[in-house]
Amino acid sequence: xxxxxxxxxxxxxxxxxxxxxxxxxxxVYRQGNHENRQIIGxxxxxxxxxxxxxxxxxxxQELYNYSKQGKACLLLVEHYxxxxxxxxxxxxEKDEExxxxxxxxxxxxxxxxxxxxxxxxxxxxxxxxxxxxxxSRSIDQVSDxxxxxxxxxxxxxxxxxxxxxxxxRKHHGRIILVFPAGxxxxxxxxxxxxxxxxxxxYLKTFDxxxxxxxxxxxxxxxxxxDMSQDKLSKDVLLFTVSKPLRARxxxxxxxxxxxxxxxxxxxxxxxxxxxxxxxxxxxxxxxxERLKKLS
Length: 295
Prior knowledge:
The protein is 49% helix and 14% strand. The chain is an alpha/beta fold. It has a single domain (3-294), classed as Glycerol-3-phosphate (1)-acyltransferase (3-Layer(aba) Sandwich). Strands 1, 2, 3, 4, 5, 6, 7, 10 and 11 form a nine-stranded mixed beta sheet that branches. The protein has a two-stranded antiparallel sheet with strand order 8-9. Helix 1 packs antiparallel against helix 2, helix 10 crosses helix 11 (247-256) and helix 11 packs across helix 12 (264-294). The longest helix has 31 residues, at 264-294.
């Protein structure tokens, strides 16, 4: 089964969406739609198996408390599917110790590819509150100088507007959520696990950061790269939250461990990805054991 099979839900979600969804520097903040989030949540309830949960939830509560105090708080999250954030949101809002208020405090950055995607994928992505950015990965993949110049003329004002919006929101009780890889991990695309350089700047401009690893996947990417063909599958999802750390401190510590002559900024980004992978590896046996108990 794919996302495209939920035709009735997709049509209903599109009817609920109102407003301007053009992609420009004047429209980088998207409000989302509560009714649609409940529709998506009902789909997730069908595919997230018993045992799915937020692990170390007290760490997310602590990060939320910092954000309510006016501290700039950042979540750096592994990325395996387009249901990663919806799954996280759903589990947080349904958790008795966390709840809807904390779920609503999370504000993800979303690449323009998802926002401008097909009618099917956009029905899902436009249903959540987001800030839209033009990812550097999309620009770096363009080799033609003229085409790259044209894209930069579009992307620069959009990203400036996104950073301005992000700066405002992060000091007003919102936890900014970023996927440091900038794309979903696909085993057949090794670079999809590599972190983007902007993460260094985020660590420089936030007060606290927590990491979230993800074990399990309920929407596996299609090798065709057509997101509407991503395969839905039932699975146990574990989102594990690390204790909040002072972002500037950990950035400085990691930068100082960079090998001589290397790019210290990229080294910091690589350490972010290593941290997430280590968390994932540690929690894989837990997820596997829960799956076994259900078989």
